[in-house]
Amino acid sequence: MKDAIDECRRRLLKNVALGMVLMPIAGAPLTAAAAADAPLVTADDPLGKALKYVSDASKSADAKPGSTCTNCKLYQGAGPVQGGCLLFPGKSVKSAGWCVSWTAKP
Q1: What is each CA distance from 13 to 16, 17, 19, 21, 49, in whole angstroms?
Q2: How many angstroms separate the CA atoms of 5 and 90, rounded?
């Protein structure tokens, strides 16, 4: 009887550990979808001004050629037009945008 209880406990602990590992992965598509529906960062946004965010990287004198939100490590976008960014929680940025925190994807 004790062996059966030990086996059930081990199985339970394995399932709980597996669930904890898979939980962030399961929520990732929902986060990306929610960010695509979020309002865009505007020119009046205080954080956007502080980071010199522009919705078109070609209009920024500071942006290096080819550096856009699409190829930034912080960009969480799933769509081709706009998506979420780790720097602007609850808001979307244009995929063609740029800010001073741009970091190349590895």
Answers
A1: 5, 6, 10, 12, 48
A2: 46
Question: What ranges in the chain are assigned the alpha helix state H?
Answer: 2-37, 46-50
Helix (H) or strand (E) holding 79: none
Instruction: Round to whole Å and give the CA distance between 40 and 60.
Output: 18
In angstroms, the Cα distances linking 54 to 2, 23, 47, 60 are: 65, 34, 12, 7
Interval 21-75: pLDDT, tens? 666 665 555 554 555 578 899 878 999 999 999 999 999 998 999 999 999 999 9
Beta-strand runs (E) in 28-106: 82-84, 92-94
Q: CA 60 → CA 12, 29, 51, 75, distances in Å? A: 55, 31, 12, 18
